Sequence to fold (645 residues):
Amino acid sequence: MPDNDFPDRARETTVFFSYSRTDQKEARAIINLLERAGFAVWWDGLLEGGERFANATEAALDRARAVVVLWSKTSVNSHWVHDESTRGRDSGRLVPLSLDGSEPPLGFGQFQCIDISRSRIDANDGEIEKMLRAVAALHDGGELPANHDLLAHPVPNRRNLLIGGGVAAMAAAGLTTWLIDPFSGSSPDNGVAVLPFENLSGDPEQNYFSDGLTSEIRTQLSRNKLLQVVGQTSSDEFRGHQGGAEEIADKLGVTFLLDGNVQKAGDRVKITADLSDGRTGASRWSQSFERPLTDIFEVQSEIAVAVATSLAAVMDDGPAIDRTTQVGGTNSIAAFDAYLRGKELYEAAIDEQSDREALAKFDEALAIDPEYASAAAARSRTLAVIGNLYADFEERVRLYDEAVLAARKATELVPDLAAGHSALGFALASGKLDMKAARVPYERTYALGIGDADQLSRYATFKSRLRDYPAASAAISRASKLDPLNSRAFRAMGDIHYFGQKYELAMSAYRRAIGLNPDIGNYYSLLGFAQLMLGQLDAADESFSNKMSKVRRLPGYAIIAHKRNDRSGAEAALAELQAEYGDKSHYQYAQVYAQWGDTTRSLAALDAAWQLRDAGLTALYADPLLAPVREEPEYIKLVKTMGFI
Fold:
């Protein structure tokens, strides 16, 4: 349908406002506040006489970044409001308000509703400010539009909003840290890398503790939206200080380096931390902490606060940071220790035994502290990995059910824990194959994890599988800047370009991943499929000849051989794949058959993959290898069943 069927206002919409006509007076007041804040708001009062209501509403809903819903005793019974709210909920764009204290209807209770029943509905009201912050968080970078004029208070220098005032002072001024785009380049000195703290205990078995402490400090700093904190993988490349400060800072693209060492002995711990200027190598701040082990959580926060304070002293606009405790953490040393041991095992990614040992450690942490949200999130992701890689069908179903429950527990315990929402999205998508249900947790992951390269990569990968190429590209670009030496980030970037049919860009990203980690054979297979899609059969053949799993290599060989009219070679490659993997690779069989032009067998293989809940189906909607069957009714039905559309 052509765009000119709809009003110009719908094309520029950033906020869709849903309400009952009975509440129009209050709705107009809220709409005015949103517009004064610089947002383009669509509401039904914009409809011109004779205009098609359904078409205009549909267009505005599709284009809106945020769907603000005004619940009241009248609107909770409105089918229109319910339908519009459902669209906002399912796409992760919902901002619910309660006008008169009414509870949202069934199906919307999991979203925190902003109660404006006692609100003055003006620019200085705290609940209205919450609404504006929530709307801003759903826009790129979480930034208020440049033309907003809501703030009656003068904008303070962020240096004055440091520790002690922090987030509270910003809220009092009508501002919050997440309303600043950390990637705008306006503050070039806000890049920090947290290098691995050295274990000085003399016992290599204690490496897990120093690495875990480093990770916790890095995570806490990454929640400061005014800092760009380099991801773990890139930072770990400089374990043991390979190179001077200037060289390390240059390779990581940052100005500051946080370094240190840890010595744990009995029930005491000694930590030394040093913040240096990567441009000169000079120390900007250094401090030693010798405390009882039970004070470890306070020390983590003290270090994060001290880093922010030191950066403020050398920047024109220093970053604010809150004194809050670690999000999703624990006050139990024993639980923390078990969690760190589990994390070390999980990240080692050695084999099934190490993954199951990691799971046991996360279970131990939760047995000690059942409200340890980070441990629940880690448990969920580990259950999902075990189910995906090692389990038979019956165990896989059970493990994924447990993964969903563990992730939901994490998000219920700490709603602001990005890792919990990410784990939930992963379990729902890869385990339950419910792409529709996974949308909301992934959107929450993005909103909460904007400074975390791993969370950004996971969100980007998910969005690419929904064929949302712009959102996926933007997120993976941020992730690669935060973790520039992480081969997985560039592998994900390659996947996103591949699913977006940008094959030249995909090849470039895959080659970057290979350059960073040439030992991961599957990177070559991904490069091979991009080459195959461009008709570069010889190059693809060479890529597939590199060491990799047969489930990657053999489908490529089967497709290439068929394109070369080598029927016997194609059949032999497929037969070897089927003999090796049996019922575990129906998705790959579907890819091969689709490329052979055998629609019937491709669709049958997809049905078999669905019956066995093959996690490969998460790529179904975007996979270019399945393009030949996309118009088939069976394919379209499966796409809808899984919630892609």
Q: What stands out?
A: DSSP finds 27 helices and eleven strands in the chain. Residues 1-11, 47-53, 141-188, 316-325 have pLDDT under 50 and may be disordered. The two ends are 18 Å apart (CA to CA). Residues 393-413 form the longest helix (21 residues).
